[in-house]
Automatic annotation (TrEMBL):
Protein name: Circularly permuted type 2 ATP-grasp protein
Circularly permuted ATP-grasp type domain ranges (all copies): 80-456
InterPro entries, per database record: ATP-dep_Glu-Cys_Ligase-2, CP_ATPgrasp_2, UCP005522
Length: 481
């Protein structure tokens, strides 16, 4: 079955490829015409080619379930998403502005706390913050940067404007899939890369290496950098091994490292102990060091925090960075930008309600069936409720959770997420999407051209997380003629 864009209807949602039945957006016109020129058999052949490439390349992720951990092939849709470069340039500036302010905030919270003293952010928010680490108070990491790798989730509203849905500042994942999506698309549609001026994404591993190298406490042409993984059973293990391989650095587990009597970190090797300068850690704070956090952890390294606090090793992202990876703190980011940078935010937040505020909480409880309510520190789409899609019983149960712990919840209106076409049985149907660009900050800033587009593969669903049935697309930043 051929694609007929006249039969493609996204309803009242902003569609990123087709702006009206049969009418493509200017920047997507060539792509739409090309897809419509392919027969149903050709489209199916391209789809099977992508599936084979994903299987051959071993692109997978792990889903945790009651039946055990299940490895699945990466869900991918072959129709790319296009964003014009002129529009992306503004978004890029907004992302750099946002991460700069967030790092100023984290550094302030663990040192002078001026933003609290000036009553821009209330102090009580940190009394129950599960990601505030008192052990980090007084620490001053290189360049005042705590979150070196950030993945902020962006959505488009019904007017096509990018809004920031949330910031991921602890151990954001997904960049390896962005890079692999591009490789798969080049295999499936090599001819499209001849007719579109697409900004490449291949520089990310080098930029990540340079960012990490800039943090080294020792002056060296090539500092010793390692990627610290919890191991093969972690859901993001594919990414851990992929990034280590792409950067040309060692992938290690906690048992491969040791903190010696000089409070420096060393890696065990066949030639003996080798000093480590920078650790790109993919382990949560509380499992990093059994000496300072969870004493039962076998994933981390005893004494690692001691070595970091003494400035003998750099950790990215830094422990404690998660204090800003909080959906309640998220609501204050526009004020942080004004406070620390003296600028107006380039990117807007989604309107939000804090349940810790009684007046706002009353509004949320009275309008629960119209709102999306999220816990402050969950990720992956877990623990949230989409009011318009919930039953009366689910709403009543969730209301009790909010009343029991209002600090842990915030609410947002159900934004009309933009759509993009996916290929289903030889035809194109609209599905909701978001975007996770990756921003690096060390000595310099780097922003991925585009990022990981996540897709709610199920019709009508707003949930884009791969762990809950979502998929992904290649994202093209296209330079226009």
């Amino acid at each position: 079955m051929k694609i007929d864009w006249q039969d493609y209807h996204s309803g009242h949602f902003y569609d990123e490829l087709i702006r009206a039945p049969g009418e493509a957006r200017p920047e997507t016109r060539h792509l739409a015409q090309y897809l419509a020129s392919l027969s149903g058999a050709e489209l199916q052949e391209r789809k099977l080619s992508a599936e084979l490439a994903i299987k051959t390349m071993g692109i997978s992720f792990t889903v945790y379930s009651d039946a055990g951990n299940i490895d699945r092939e990466w869900p991918f849709d072959i129709i790319p998403r296009i964003i014009p470069q002129r529009e992306w340039q503004k978004t890029e500036r907004g992302l750099i502005q946002r991460l700069t302010a967030l790092n100023c905030f984290i550094n302030d919270i663990y040192n002078d706390q001026k933003i609290i003293k000036d009553r821009v952010v209330p102090a009580y928010l940190f009394e129950d913050s599960v990601n505030f680490r008192k052990e980090c108070i007084g620490m001053k990491p290189a360049y005042g940067v705590w979150s070196h790798i950030c993945g902020s989730d962006l959505i488009r509203d019904d007017k096509g404007e990018f809004l920031v849905l949330e910031d991921n500042l602890r151990v954001p994942s997904g960049v390896s899939y962005m890079l692999e999506n591009r490789k798969v698309t080049k295999r499936v549609f090599p001819e499209l890369f001849e007719n579109h001026n697409i900004v490449p994404v291949t520089e990310y591993p080098n930029q990540l290496f340079d960012t990490l190298a800039s943090l080294s406490p020792r002056q060296s042409e090539r500092p010793e950098i390692v990627v610290l993984t919890p191991g093969i059973y972690n859901s993001a293990y594919f990414e851990h091994s992929y990034l280590a391989q792409q950067m040309g650095v060692e992938l290690v587990e906690g048992s491969d490292l040791v903190v010696d009597s000089d409070d420096c970190v060393y890696m065990r090797s066949i030639d003996g102990l080798k000093r480590v300068d920078v650790i790109y850690r993919r382990i949560d704070d509380l499992f990093l060091d059994p000496e300072m956090f969870n004493p039962d952890s076998v994933l981390g390294v005893r004494g690692l925090m001691r070595a970091w606090l003494k400035g003998n090793v750099a950790l990215a992202n830094a422990p404690g960075a998660g204090v800003a990876d909080d959906k309640v703190i998220y609501t204050f980011v526009p004020e942080m930008i004004k406070y620390y940078l003296g600028e107006e935010p380039i990117l807007s937040n989604v309107p939000s309600y804090l349940c810790v505020d009684k007046k706002q909480c009353d509004y949320v409880l009275a309008n629960l069936d119209k709102l999306v309510v999220k816990p402050a520190n969950e990720s992956g789409g877990y623990g949230m409720i989409i009011g318009p899609q919930a039953s009366k019983k689910e709403l009543a149960e969730f209301a009790e959770r909010i009343k029991a712990n209002p600090r842990n919840y915030m609410a947002q209106p159900l934004i009309s997420l933009s759509t993009a076409p996916i290929l289903t049985n030889g035809n194109a149907e609209p599905r909701h999407i978001d975007l996770r660009p990756f921003v690096l900050q060390g000595r310099e800033h780097h922003v991925t051209p585009g990022g990981l587009t996540r897709v709610a593969m199920r019709k009508g669903s707003y949930v884009v997380n791969s762990s809950q049935g979502g998929g992904s697309k290649d994202t093209w930043i296209v330079v226009e003629d």
